[in-house]
Amino acid sequence: MLQKYSKDIFADFFQKNSGSQEQYSKALSILAHLRNCETHFYIDKESFLSDDEFRQLHDFMIIFYKILVWYELLPKTVTEIQYAAYIFDRKLPENFSYKNAVLSSEYMRNLAISIDSTKFPWIGESPYEIAQSICILFRKYRSREEFISLVTYIDGAVSNKLMSWDIVPEKENPTYDGLVGWKVFSKYHITFCTLSGEMMTR
Question: Which residue among 62, 68, 117, 192 is least packed, with the fewest CB closer than 10 Å?
């Protein structure tokens, strides 16, 4: 019953908004492909969801939101603040890419400023290890939610060559309270866009 109701709604919407149907069909094909990868436990990080596929799925979500609004399917018993969580109408920029998203991220801008010139205990070069080393000195990233965000953003920066590091010469190793016997330290450098749109590395 619910499945038939959904099909009727989509059919009616596309009859009145034919321009959206092609986007919808492409998005469903992408979702089917991604779902097939998941069920076979094969997810290639480098190709699982390309920039273009992400853009298409994002546009599909805008169409889906329009349908919810058009047929008044959003919950009517929520507060204005809760209702705002359902809104999905922001278009992606034409030049969207994961790299540009990381570059222009306020999170990465703040992280770059926070860690600038700090010498961190060196653990390794994977995003997870880099995040661990930052957490040793910065307690605010230690909660589960904050750590997951930190690893995710660092992964995006490392994958797109927007983050690098230098090993500190041993004679310049810092001394930190409670951190005894650590032999190797590093400095991290992040490339990001300033608020005025300029590229900067810190």
Answer: 117
